[in-house]
Amino acid sequence: MIGLGTYAYFWQHAEGLSLVGAFEDTRAQRVDLFQICDYAPLEQMTDAELRDAASAARDTGLTIELGTKGIEPERLERFLTLAEIFDARVVRSMLYGPESRPSLDDARRTLADAMPAYEAAGVSLALETYEQVPTRDIVGLIDTVGSDALGVCLDPANVVAQLESPRECVRETSRLVKNVHVKDFAFARQDGWVGFTYSGARMGEGLHDYGQLLDVVRPRERGINEVVEHWLPWQTDAETTIRTERDWTRATLEYLRSTL
């Protein structure tokens, strides 16, 4: 299933778009999935506000996924509760959170303790590939824990900062993928030719070989959701930035639909 996420609405949320407003816009673009990922207000909502948001998603006809950062036991437990409220079947996280940077041994013990509850609830925990932890370590950790409910949120763009190849990251994680983050990316020379900026790009105009990901991971055959997000720098003013953000979303949806 193709989806949009809060990172596709990053600047729109910053300018006041509500979560329910993003739900409504997602459905207006004929998209059936929304990933609430690293959306700070979610963790500040009361139980009543959470139920209202979940009800709005259901009324709008959306399937919901969730995303957070960190694997502290209380965080994993809390997001499993949120998954129940939103009927979510995927929770994306990262090994390192705002309050902790566990060793691989500590992470293994924490995840081994947490996964039986996720398995019982029918919820997958997807650890994102990113620059702070080598992909081989994430793969090794998942294999060691040995839970069918534990896998990878594949984001090949992130690993470039670890000097890893996005294509190799796709190959290395393919058998473990539970979720895909979809965005293009590119390098651009800085003024004066004194370095590069690594940032987002309009889908199809950057370096991402998404066709390779489709061939290797086969997300559509395996029922793996593909969630659109962006790395869009500020574009001089809010109106221009939001217009560009919406254009990038349209371009990415058009690309994904063209590959179905």
Question: Portion of residues in helices?
Answer: 40-55%
> Which stretches are poorly predicted, pLDDT < 50 over at least 5 residues?
none
Gross morphology: globular
Q: Tally the beta strands.
A: 10
Strand content: 15-25%
- What is the radius of gyration computed over CA atoms, rounded to a whole number of angstroms? 18 Å
State the helix count: 10
Query: What's the average pLDDT?
Result: 97
**Major β-sheet annotation:** 8 strands, parallel, barrel
The helix/strand class is alpha/beta
Briefly say what this structure is.
Helix content is 43%, strand content 19%.
Describe the structure.
By secondary structure, the chain is an alpha/beta fold. It is built from 10 helices and 10 strands. It has helices at 10-14, 19-28, 47-60, 73-86, 104-121, 135-145, 166-173, 210-217, 219-222, 238-258, and strands at 2-5, 33-37, 63-67, 90-93, 124-128, 150-154, 177-182, 184-189, 196-201, 225-228. The chain has an 8-stranded parallel beta barrel, surrounded by 7 helices. A hairpin with a 6-residue loop joins strand 8 (184-189) and strand 9 (196-201). Helix 2 runs parallel beside helix 3 and helix 4 (73-86) packs parallel to helix 5 (104-121). The longest helix is centred in the C-terminal third of the chain and has 21 residues, at 238-258. The radius of gyration is 18 Å and the shape is globular. This is Sugar phosphate isomerase/epimerase. Residues 44-251 form the Xylose isomerase-like TIM barrel domain. InterPro entries: IolE/XylAMocC-like, Xyl_isomerase-like_sf, Xyl_isomerase-like_TIM-brl.
